[in-house]
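Reviewer 2 asked us to include a model.

Predict the structure of this chain.
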Amino acid sequence: MRKELLLANLRTIPDFPIPGILFYDVTTLFKSTECLNEMLDTLVEQYKDKGITKVVGIESRGFILGGALAARLGAGFVMARKPGKLPAETIEETYAKEYGTDCIQIHKDAITEEDVVLLHDDLLATGGTMAAAYRLVQKCGAKKSYVNFIIELNELNGRKAFPEDVDVQTLLNL
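Predicted model (structure tokens):
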């Protein structure tokens, strides 16, 4: 993978959404055909022999590569969303945030015991949202699960949100 290409196209925005935060804006990677193909080609190569049957994209930026990745892997796509956004019966997982709690849901019939699942999102910070999505997939009885992000913010230690035996991969470590 050409990390230098992705880094050169990644926009950073200081003091967003609050002062002191350096925001990594992946939309600049998505708008570049070259970057988009670089990320997809790398992810397909990484997961093509893992038997992936479902890709779970985390709302909302995880939907962008998640859907394209599912299509390239010949897998189905599942949306993990905030409450009230999915129309059929759901299961949910609550997780702690810095100030309070939040919740993520998937359709109850989205994942089966036969599925090998790749969970995808754009950024690993503290890991709370993805860890909750991972627990949802486990509740559904998935045969195997993998976790992937475009960017990992190393100083926030988000990997600690997952059991040690979970395969967590990222394209860029910052």
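The two ends are 16 Å apart (CA to CA). The chain is about 30% helix and 35% strand. We have added this to the supplementary material.
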